[in-house]
Amino acid sequence: MSNFAFDSFDQIINMDGHGLYVWLVFLIFLISITTSFIVFNSLIKKYKSQIR
Amino acid sequence: MLREIINTVIKKFIHQFASPKTYFLQVKRLYPWVFYISIAIYVVAITWGLLFTPKDFVQGNSYRIIYFHVPASFIAQSLYAAMAFSSAVYLIWKVKLAAYLSRSIAPVGATVTLIALISGSIWGIPTWGTWWEWDARITSTLILFIMYLGLISLHNSFNNFEKADKLFSYLAIIGFIQIPIIKKSVDWWSSLHQPASITISDKPSIDPVMLYPLFLSIIGFSGLVACLVILSSKVQIYKREKNKNWIKDYV
User: Fold this and answer.
1) What is the pTM of this model?
2) Does the complex come out with an ipTM higher than 0.85?
3) Interface contact B242-A21, CB threshold 8 A
4) Which residues face B60 on adjacent strands?
5) SS3 string of B147-214?
6) Does residue A32 form part of some domain?
7) Domain boundaries in chain B?
């Protein structure tokens, strides 16, 4: 594994001006995947309750 | 003779393992393992890629989007290939579960393709100076997304599942032609998009320090996507097998 690439928390957030793009993609990724899990689980609950 | 043996083996395999009930009970056992291992691998990959790899000489820190964009693009195409394969199995051997799986892959594939498109567009702003360009790779990926949505709409427009499955399968197989086009688009046409960094035949053009977390992110994300396909297939099974005794007993 390489060394830690940043010297401070500000650098992690800012990433030399590219932080907005990187963290925005991270956020969109996280939201899309989490939402998909929630939607499928709620559909399973819905169909399960219909069978009951 | 050989053909008969192969057919017997396939039929035996299909009867034993490809019934919705067996599949349902097997994935129930498998799901938590795949889910937690994939989450662990992906968290390690993302932490490694975002915080511990050095900055790229040309693209600076914006290259770190690779740990989201490449797994999403790769899996978006792989899912389509899996859907086309599953559709072929359904049409050739009339395996009901294969039709369920094809239909289950479509919404997951659409979501992953959308992630690939959005992450690529955002990456384009600092590297190309534009978020969208009608170039071969981007346009063919957009067509892949539209294809997924079209297949879902087509299936939803029928009340008869059997008719819907048949049409869905034929169209999914025909649409498979776009997968090699997407793969080769950067070689066949002049494109803003860079050529593939990882190929089977050549040495990767990406430094190993950046490559290892990328491989891990592809593995971790594949596991998470597999979990989404499992959940989506459970939805299809609950929806279509609701009148069967085994599912009533299970619920």
Assistant:
1) 0.91
2) yes
3) no
4) B56
5) HHHHHHHHHHCCCCHHHHHHHHHHHHHHHCCHHHHHHHHHHHCCCCCCCCCCCCCCCCCCCHHHHHHH
6) yes
7) 22-250
Tens of pLDDT, residue by residue over A25-49, are 999 999 999 999 999 999 999 999 9
Domain-embedded: residue A21: no
Q: At what angle do helices B96-128 and B136-156 cross, to 10 degrees?
A: 150
Of A2, A29, A44, the CB nearest to B209: A2
How far apart are the CA of A43 and the nearest CA of chain B, in angstroms? 6
Inter-chain residue contact B122 with A26, CB threshold 8 Å? no
Quick check: is A17 in a domain? no
Distance from CA of B215 to the nearest CA of A (A): 14
Any A CB within 8 A of B62 CB: yes
Distance from the Cα of B28 to chain A's closest Cα (Å) equals 13
Number of domains composing chain A: 1
In a domain, A8, yes or no: no
